[in-house]
Design goal:
It is built from two helices and no strands. With 80 residues, it is mainly alpha-helical. The longest helix has 32 residues. The radius of gyration is 18 Å and the shape is elongated.
């Protein structure tokens, strides 16, 4: 068993960015299901716009969360 004596802030930021990416990939199907429910509950014009916005958001969400997770973790103090 290894004992951690110090952690590099950049390494922790990279790991947290990957954790946020993984969480976004896990939750993207839920947003897709909600988008499909919204598409079937509206009129045709609004359904097309709602479907496209939901699809773009579900695809872009992992990238947005990952890029936000890295600097937000760097900005916090490292309390161990």
């Amino acid at each position: 068993m290894h004992e951690l004596k110090r952690l590099d802030v950049i390494s922790v930021g990279k790991i947290m960015g990957m954790v946020y990416d993984l969480l976004a990939v896990l939750f993207s199907p839920l947003f897709l299901i909600m988008m499909i429910a919204g598409v079937f509950s509206q009129d045709k014009g609004a359904a097309v716009v709602s479907g496209m916005v939901g699809l773009v958001f579900a695809i872009a969400m992992p990238f947005m969360y990952g890029t936000m997770g890295f600097p937000f973790r760097l900005s916090r103090r490292l309390d161990l």
